[in-house]
Amino acid sequence: MADVTFIILTKNEEINLPDCLQSIKDFARRVIVVDSGSTDKTVDIARQYGADVYVHEFENYARQFNWGIDNGDIKTKWIFRLDADERLTSELCAELNTLMIKHAEDDVNGVTMEAWLYFMGKKIRHGCHNKRKLMLFKTGVGRIEDRNMDEHTVLSRGQSVCAKNKFIHYDFKDITHWINKMNWYATREMQDYYEFINGKASDLGRNEDKIVNKTRKKKFGLYYKLPLFTRSRLLFIYNYIFKLGFLDGKIGWIYHYMYHRWYRSLVDAKILEQKLTDRAFEKTGDLK
């Protein structure tokens, strides 16, 4: 067992959770599941795999995860941020174990990873950003910044290194659930946009995080400066044509159109609606 505690946030994840927990059962010293009121078998499954289950009302992803850090009585050297629809490969586990031993006492306090994304059961090989994120970090050094959307794990000190092997992002739920999730994300994305243009600083602690800065620069420094709705069309063309998304066939078309064209247009529609109505932001809550 590696000297690492996994924190997994759940809400009705009985379909995804078994594969997630199976992938780390011989790797994680401890698993903490922070559940926000599941009505299916999620909690039972977590306990069957030996996870410690905590129940806490959901506000947003960052606060829920940070609550797990603060209330989980974590004794391991490292903490891993994992979602229920993600899983590790044996190759990645072996690599991470080597990295944790190698950097146990130096200033390397985090490890970043990329994902292989699966959509409707098919691996998306082309035109997908597969952005890198910091998932493994030393206890007491990492936290998730408090944002409505695109919340990153950031280190209070030290540096991070990159893992070569990828983890798997595979959601077994159907397209209806995916659409509902995108609608939920779009509201949070709209709120994040208005908080940014109104001058809310991101809770980074330090501003030299390269992954965070690169993502924010593309999003707020380029994408959101393009006209409403035109930008989603350009994003779709860029990913589907120029980044060869069309090579993934019918499923590739569905993914790129639904994510880069439909979802980003939905975000713009909510941005426009907020501008026209000037409504107070409502609590987004957990995804049902």
Account of the 3D structure:
Helix 1 links the parallel strand 1 and strand 2 (28-35). This protein is α/β, with parallel strands linked by helices. Strands 3-2-1-4-9-6-12 form a 7-stranded mixed β-sheet, with helices on both faces. A 4-stranded mixed β-sheet has the order 5-13-7-8. 34% of the residues are buried. It has helices at 17-22, 42-48, 61-71, 90-102, 175-197, 210-221, 230-242, 249-277, and strands at 2-10, 28-35, 52-55, 78-83, 86-87, 108-113, 115-119, 122-123, 133-138, 142-144, 153-155, 159-162, 167-170. The protein has 8 helices and 13 strands.
Care to count the β-strands? Answer: 13
Work out the helix count: 8
Output the structural class: alpha/beta
Low-pLDDT segments, ≥5 res: 202-208
Strands of the widest sheet, in order across it, are: 3-2-1-4-9-6-12
What multimeric state do the chains show? single chain
Q: What portion of the residues fall into strands of 2 or more residues?
A: 15-25%
Chain-averaged pLDDT: 91
Largest sheet: 7 strands, mixed
Give helix and strand order, one letter per element, not per position.
EHEHEHEEHEEEEEEEEHHHH
Question: Percent range for helical residues?
Answer: 25-40%
How far apart, in Å, are the first and last alpha carbons? 34 Å
Rg, alpha carbons = 19 Å
Shape: globular
